[in-house]
Queue: 3 jobs
Job 1
Amino acid sequence: MSTLLPPKFGPYGGQFVPETLMPALIELEKAFVDAQKDKGFRKEFEGLLASFVGRPTPLTYAKRLSEQLGGAQIYLKREDLAHTGAHKINNALGQALLVKRMGKKRVVAETGAGQHGVASATAAALLGLECVVYMGSVDITRQEPNVFRMKLLGAEVRPVESGTKTLKDAINEAIRDWVTNVGDTHYLLGSALGPHPYPTIVREFQSVIGIEAREQMLRDVGRLPDTVIACVGGGSNAIGVFSGFVDDEHVELVGVEAGGAGIETGRHAARFGDAAGARVGVIHGTRTYVLQDEDGQIAETHSVSAGLDYAAVGPEHAMMRDSERAFYTSATDTEALSAFQMLCHTEGIIPALESSHAVAEVIKRAPKMRKDQVILVNLSGRGDKDLNTVITELGQNL
Amino acid sequence: MNRIEIAFQNKPIFMPYFPLGYPDLETSIDVIEVLANNGADLIEVGLSFSDPLADGPVIQKATQVALEHGITIRKSLTAIAELRKRGVTIPLILMGYFNPMLAYGLEKFVKDAREAGVDGFIIPDLPLEEAAEFQALVGDMPLIQMLAPTSPNERMETIARNARGFIYLVSVTGVTGARTSISEGLADLIARVREHTSVPVCVGFGIGTPEQAKEVGEMADGVIVGTACVRTIGGSENPVETAKEFAKSFKDEMAN
Ligand SMILES: Cc1ncc(COP(=O)(O)O)c(C=O)c1O
């Protein structure tokens, strides 16, 4: 059976799901393709992005950070200023509008950092959908403020106790719910992951980041950036910003994974960074780089940031890595925490711990670049949700 | 005639599922042997995976225990060879998720499975769209295709037409796990599948008691019992003895 859109990114991607879900994927793909052609849909989506999310999000020149690092000029794409505090709302709204189109009434979502859960709960409240969010119990503890937010927004938060009790297990449970209730339920997947058509749909709904950022660079700075940097959990904020620059061959694209306690410790989530621990495999419906043991059991991952703490990476990133169109590196917990503090002090912006990984890479690169060079960082979210974690980690040093 | 065809000479057949390594490897081998000697016509032998997204809590837990006790594909295949040595002649179908097979190496996996005495494969996360790569390797060992209540007619036709061995018809939308009643539309669903194929149609997901098995057996060519088998046998003081009673109770009820 053939798909309407290409289901693979080179050898990656695909649809590795139980038969029960295949018809739902086919229906979703059709709804998405129809919606893309429908001016009314695009108008409604763009209208909500403007009036509800507050787009376009600003491009901020990080003057003091640039000065302190003494090299490249640094610009921040402020997804932290989007309604609900992260880029996740772009995709959640887009998919929720598709749900309306498909005539479904209920959405299930997974969440790690809680940002996608909050975004899904928000979109569901706005559009009158029932919303159930699965969240690992470890993440419930470390992202507690977001749990309250989801509940206030009318969503039901179901703690997941299986496996490692983090994002991977939340996805398992969301899929199990979906397979059981597929007749009236949509799985509102929060990253550029999972079976086709999700990686494509999520990229399209997040591409607004890259489109805006490119226009803003040209308008406000008068040139394109030399380097674009984003953190990579599943890969949605990164693919969103990269998509705006992918055809500008001279713009370097850099994805930053979670280096956790350090690659050499084995306690990390750097799918591209660990030649020994990551191989191409299949998890959650897609073929991509997966942290796993010798026997193909999915590995336990670690990151101080819940949103990057996941064993697999979106399939399009796997392709871009192989083709070397993008370059992937990692930042450790410690590097991310000090980047977090530096951005707080120099710019008056409290970034999400996920986004702090991208800032950590800026701190490494900017000093080696010339003053007339430009880095664009996607600041994917704000850090209010992370205050508990940061206070615990930094303790006395705060 | 191969082992699967021989098994389907006396329909409906009883097909329990049990994972190797649960509650421990030795016991699971004994359990499978005893199931085979007491009425199972075909056994789905479970391979464990850390993220079994098509399974309900009972099978999740059992396969988790098996993994904690160090089960691997290699050990599972050695166990199959051991079962053959002990004189088990019914078809043994491996049921497991795709990633551990990929990690083992697909070609080597199929070759080693054949040598161990495996008769076919069920891979719940390998739908028709992704099956070609594996299909090309299996030769005469069927990759059993699954159909679901959600499969539209056209899709059902394509899958059923190319099916080999038997068809695994998922009776309900959902994960594995016993249900209290047999879904109403099942007879129609089976009839829809039969329009497109002459291979046996077996029904699984949700069948928990001998009475339900009998009811389904009157419509289908085979009855798959997973969760109830794992729960009853795994949860007992003496799994091997319980396995014997379990198999007998299903087989007797289905036969009368
Ligand atoms: C603020 C923020 N940034 C980044 C991520 C990572 O996801 P992705 O790689 O899909 O952008 C998350 C996920 O929860 C997040 O909340």
Job 2
Amino acid sequence: MKMKHGNPISNFKATISAKTFLNAGTVSMFLKVPDVSFAPGQFIMLEAPGHTLKRPFVICSVKEGRLRIVFSIRGKGTKTLSELDTGTELDAIAPLGNSFPMPAKDKTVFLIGGGLGTVTMLPLAGQIKAAGIITIIGAKNGDELILADEFKKYGEVLISTDDGSCGKKGSSIDVFNEAVKKFKKNECVVYACGPNPMLRCLAGTIKKTGMECHVSMEERMACGVGACVCCVVKTEKGLKRSCKDGPVFNIGEIIW
Amino acid sequence: MVKAELFGKKLKSPLIMASGVFGYGDEYDFIDLGPIAAFCTKGLSLKPRDGNPMPRIWETEAGIINSVGLQNIGVNRFLEEKLPKVSGLPMEIITNFFGNTVEEYVEAASILSGRKGIFALEMNISCPNVKSGGISFGQDPHTVEKLTKAVKKVVDKPLIVKLTPNVTSISDIALAAEAGGADSVSLINTVKAMAIDVKTGKPVISGGLSGRAIKPIALKAVYDVSRAVKIPVIGIGGIYTAEDVIEFIIAGAKAVQIGTAIFSNPNVAADIYRGLMDK
Ligand SMILES: Cc1cc2nc3c(=O)[nH]c(=O)nc-3n(C[C@H](O)[C@H](O)[C@H](O)COP(=O)(O)OP(=O)(O)OC[C@H]3O[C@@H](n4cnc5c(N)ncnc54)[C@H](O)[C@@H]3O)c2cc1C
Ligand SMILES: Cc1cc2nc3c(=O)[nH]c(=O)nc-3n(C[C@H](O)[C@H](O)[C@H](O)COP(=O)(O)O)c2cc1C
Ligand code: FES
């Protein structure tokens, strides 16, 4: 069962009210927005000035009319966005997509974030009420590791890097496989977001253990509202639009 | 500038939402639909289609390349599930459709024909004709005339033939559609295009270009076709502003369609309408 969404989709102007660099390539940005409510997993499509398409970003939080996003500089659009001054007005659409189903209160929750997928776990960490939260963050190296301190407020944080420069050397899924051994399958719920190979690897583990697991998929988007079918994901129930039927899917539904 | 008329019917504006960017009309319930005269559905085929693999969209310097591959729910599911939902909206409904054989076109058209609530049919002829080795229907005047005639026989609604720019002489194709009995031609569909990833040394997408980059191409096509045929011409390609609409009207268009621009501004039609009122 999916959680109830925030208020209906709207198209509005968002004004950059604060911008800080978490590291050389990652920006935390606050946008002044009209009344927007959201559920963890939902996202915003934000104008990148001079570019044809809006960029999708997870909504991290909305407090007192200020919506927060955290993004990595990847290509041209995120570069442009990172260079904008506070006060800049951007066209936006939000809240979009479905959201993560919330766990029962007696469960232990695993949040697994790979690369910029870590951002997607942040609103969940803030809103989940559970027996415990264990966050696993995977990054290429220590310099690209983001948000670890913010997650520490909510529980244990385990780290993995590809080159071993921080935390365990290896993948976040290896770390998860090790950490989950302590639990019976009905005791925990797993949430994950990251590159497709990481999620595919997780799908293998989940299939064996039969745990409840929800993932957020990252596809290229044009409209963001379900109209253009540019962002489809193959599932057992046919092609699904990740912007409208997703981005959150039960991991068992996805055909990799 | 804000009034328009097509097929003897007064429209509240010359602004139509183009096929493929507006789904089946039920997704953009959060925008101001007031100024939109009509919308074209995603291209419908006789049977549902799954379309192409990902990626289906690629941003370029001044537009986008798409290779959605005409994924759609098929004419029957559209009529059962979507038409009742969108019939009440304050816009006319134009059903865009296509096929891979003349028979498929005719059958899809006859299923859509006679349905209450549909204003007109728009026939996408940019699709490969499987019986002639995959060359698109819209590239050969003789085929276009035959196809238009065959479809016209089974429809009781205005038939718009949507032209591809990927031809030597678009006016010849428009004349063929007119000779086949088309009530209007709309142009242009997307321009063949590709993007290459230098890191992998391979193409990342091969599809159709739309958006600002194609506006001058579309204007020239509309200008030429408007002088060749007597039926009304609907202009499409890179329209973002009221100024763009006026350019197309000067080139000879009786109405226009807005596609890619909706991705940067969902309320683009309302904004253009306001712009036209001020002119
Ligand atoms: C639902 C969702 C939520 C996301 N949330 C976040 C987030 O909170 N923080 C964050 O850093 N990133 C997030 N991303 C990824 C982010 O949207 C891309 O990194 C960004 O669009 C890249 O834009 P660009 O202009 O820098 O890249 P370019 O390569 O210049 O972009 C070209 C086009 O491709 C698209 N694109 C390129 N890479 C991706 C990608 N990985 N995923 C989706 N579209 C892509 C762009 O949106 C644009 O349309 C999210 C993606 C999705 C689908
Ligand atoms: C994502 C996408 C999907 C499209 N799908 C269709 C379609 O199904 N049938 C069709 O006739 N044209 C389709 N088109 C073409 C548009 O209707 C339009 O002719 C073209 O995009 C040029 O207009 P624009 O520059 O305003 O987008 C599609 C365009 C885009 C961008
Ligand atoms: S981006 Fe258009 S349907 Fe998902």
Job 3
Amino acid sequence: MPKGRVSIVVERCKACGFCVEFCPSHVLALSSAFNSKGYHPPHVVHPEKCSGCDLCGMYCPDFAICATKVDPAGHPAARTAAQPAGQAAGQTMKKATPAKGGSK
Amino acid sequence: MSDILNTDILDTDIVNPVEPILRSDRIPHIWCPGCGIGTTVNSFARALVDSNIDLGSLALVSGIGCTGRVAGYVKLDSFHTTHGRAIPFATGLKLANPKLNVVVYSGDGDLSAIGGNHLIHAARRNIDLKVICVNNLIYAMTGGQTAPTTPDHSTTSTNPYGVFEPSFNLPHLVEAAGAVYVARWTTFHVRQLSRSISEAFKKKGFSFIEVISPCPTLYQRRNKMGDGLDAMKYYKEKSKVRHGAPTGEVGLTMTGEIIVGKFVDRDRPDYETMMRSQFRESLGERFVEQTEMVCS
Ligand SMILES: Cc1ncc(C[n+]2csc(CCOP(=O)(O)OP(=O)(O)O)c2C)c(N)n1
Ligand code: SF4
Ligand code: SF4
Ligand code: SF4
Ligand SMILES: [Mg+2]
């Protein structure tokens, strides 16, 4: 039974490999698939080994991956379960409108 | 590299804890693949979340450079100042509104070259600022010119035959100038960095955290040092944690050991405290303590 679960926002990833390299349980690998910018995002190859430590999430320079601990039923533990569903990372992306001006 | 993208695992009901700190609509950001700046922001955002700091009382000020772009990606009151002037801008903010927690987030070039005088004088005056210096050992944004931090013997666009001038040891510089908190980590040390940032928030006075960070595009490529991940592996292999190390001994070289840790943690009155006590002493009854700052 996995103790953690990973979420990946594929379109943010730039395939640096930090998450793959520093996952202590070797849960991740870069896939051969492309995202729309041409990068190979990681995917989970050993879900059963994930501890939910979120080190992958801490290392990611692109805020593209994160993980959470899950209860025995596989539900995300306290921190994320408390959040309204609409605030999920993936959905924030979809709702986002492009920034107008202001950026330098 | 494995073959398929296992999309079953992509989980959108898991919330990235740093999301509330970011301007999500501006991401993906402009930083290169393998650039370490995003990882430092990640640790910073986690420090804010973990230390439960009131985001409304926080202001973040950046100078110019790749690191300077941080101001545009955080969902905080933030300001992207001119090159080298993050510290004077932040000093003004802090003096006008002493209750603000003011963070300066900028690059090695911005803070120690064009902004070098502001850095030493803010440390000397012990202005209550939290300075996060992303040290990628180069002027990255403008094309990889030699910075005051570029290590001896490395090659840059302005030293194509190798750097021969001695570089600044930033922890030593700011300690000598008077900083009350000085730490150094690399982007490999994500948890320790986050903890140091939380700790700096509890200090009153000039705090300086240096983060050694990869610049694969403009520093490493010219020096045949591989990509961002190679830099991370180098940090992992060559870093030694030495809390309390004399800062005079923590200078960086191109490929040698990187001493990391908390080097300085001391207390002395900050600028505002010294100013008030001086006014009280010399003006006596005539000095009116202004407790609430009204900004309109
Ligand atoms: C007054 C002024 N001089 C020079 C520049 C050009 N300039 C922009 S960024 C930069 C160097 C930035 O280096 P650093 O602070 O290390 O940031 P990095 O890009 O490495 O993160 C320089 C010289 C400028 N913008 N303004
Ligand atoms: S949460 Fe920890 S164990 Fe799971 S993939 Fe991320 S780094 Fe690996
Ligand atoms: S750390 Fe982030 S950007 Fe790098 S490969 Fe993993 S998900 Fe992609
Ligand atoms: S040029 Fe260097 S510092 Fe700037 S974004 Fe690219 S890797 Fe990062
Ligand atoms: Mg730099």
